[in-house]
Amino acid sequence: MGDRVRSVRLGHYAVPLDQAVSDAKVATGRQRPLTQIDVLTCEIVTDDGLTGLGFSYTTRAGCRAQFAHAKEIAENLLGEDPSDIGRLYDRLLWAGASVGRSGAATQAIAAADTALWDVKARRAGLPLAKLLGAHRDAVRVYNTSGGYLQAPIEEVKERAAASLADGIGGIKIKVGQPDMREDSRRLAAVREHIGADTPLMVDANQQWDRQAALRFGRAVEELGLVWIEEPLDAYDAEGHAQLAAALDTPIATGEMLTGVPDLVRLIDLRAVGFLQPDVPRVGGITPYLKVAALADHAHLQVTPHFVMEIHVHLAAAYPRDSWVEHIEWLSPLFEERLRIDGGRMLVPDRPGLGLTLSERRHEWLVDDVAFGTAE
Ligand SMILES: [Mg+2]
What we know:
about 375 residues; alpha/beta; Enolase-like, domain 1; TIM Barrel; 2 domains; about 20% strand; binds magnesium ion
């Protein structure tokens, strides 16, 4: 009765970006341009011969900590029934309880948790979205990767047009430069280029104080933006709530928060119209589902951050029709490509997440370790 986890393999891969990108945190000197994404993978094999793949990620720093933590706790999965995801999540959490329930500790667990959900969906022969209870087979999709601040406005316009021609349904550009007038110029140029009817979002990556955010928000009300993202420090829940009450344009945030209670605070304070949790960052699919249930109860939209490969399933299983974020940076790590049509990303019809690691990944291997016997 019950299957058993036979082996667990962890990998750390440094996946290079085609082009270094900069958001407002770079424009104001807080961070260096982003050149690669570091990914922690977890591959599980069971006695029944099923496999599961999960992953977590970091930008700039932290993946070595995630890998080290995952390496310390992974053996707790061996010999356990992979269907008991709730029990195994707690087991992994308590194994490393002294380093807490958020941040790198739970991001390390996220890779294993996602792999366990992948096993469960593959066992059922269902895409993860259908295992969770899908509301739709395709999710609205917007592009972010073409709208970074290092790109001249002509390039941003060209890439926006190319995204729309590829079937993507909305465009997001970065703002939050030291000179707010430059943000306004770029925003107006993109709005004119893509037309008044194309959904358009902006993302300030936490660069404004409360007064500056209110000034910007009032100045752009007539542009009909879908949302203004991260106008304030990620942890200023009260500030986001005040801004949301003062503006007609909805507020979006949540991507930087690494624990369930931080996201629940945004829900409780009605600080956002669009909540943006991130499965790897918040500790896996299991905690993400808690957040999503509470967000739905509060009548909020949930538009998950990055990681479209996992989030297309979760957005399809969320009651309200929302958006996934098109950023193609992780694509080289996988064999499969997500399909986009008519402004929507299609949920893969393959079992589980529908992902397998690419052969190319070996070029980017930083570290790996295996537990148990793979044969
Ligand atoms: Mg963002």
